[in-house]
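Section 3.1 - Work completed
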Amino acid sequence: MTETDAFDDAVRRYRKHRRVNPPTNPIPGLGKIVLVFAAAMTAACSTVDRRTMITIADARVDKAQVIDVGEPGDSPGDLFVFDQPLLDQHGEIIGNNSGVCIRTRMGHSLQCQWTLTLDNGSIQVAGREFDQGASDIVIVGGTGAYEGISGYMESVNNGDGTFLQTLYYRHR
């Protein structure tokens, strides 16, 4: 008998055993109870507060400091270090925006990590920021009132030294 024949024979014996001795549920209705419990837990766990926050990173006065580490000028590996005022959508200062970006593709994009520091906590973000257009950057965590935050931030370079940052997040 080959290995294939032995395997086929074992499968046939198992199937015959299952037909003769079907599995039984020792507690009638247990399956329904488990299903209702799982549905309730899923609903409870998905109860999140979905929010949107609009901020503006103001780099007009406090421009990013460029650390030119590669070839002279814009080149991969260059660092952009910043600590700038963070404004609300009405232009009022609500905190600061500080972090670092590494040039990964000349004239195209950077890999960034920064912190939005507010009166009641901070929000950390990280991801690829494009030189032009919108960039979706993940929210990696928070402190204080923002502990347990998750979501993403859309960052748009306005071309005037400011960046519109719209945070789409969930907070438990």
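Second construct:
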Amino acid sequence: MGRTAFASTGLAATIAMVLLAAGLWLGVSPSAAARDPSLPDPQMTPGDVLPGVSKEQVCQPDYGHDIGPISQERGQQVLLAYRLLNTDPGAYKIDHLIPLALGGSNNITNLWPLARNAEPWNAYVKDVFERKLHTMIYTGNLSLSEVQSALAKDWIAAYWRWIGE
């Protein structure tokens, strides 16, 4: 009896390892399925900034608009990595963890799918928050590097820290 249970456990472990390896081979984090959808998987999306970007640069009108949009192919790569490829295309915004307007890059390590209609944390809330952060950097209340670091760590915690509403 014990041998049968061991064999079943061994088979289950082997199947789990094969599935995990397949997920890693596809570039899918093993924690992607169980993650909080309001936050990116920190292994896949740790955040990324353009080197050498300064407060003076991001405070220029329309800074970041010339970097260019995320390609459809890149968006598909992000959705695939987060196992969301076959979802409603309008349900998620491919978001920059560190926004372009605050020195973030279009590197895939700065991109993740953020739900448009989830409550209370969604793409619209984050967009408004990013505009407020930009103003706080512009007025000298926050440093650019402090904001970039906080967003990369946990954008919701940063929201509570600086907005608190």
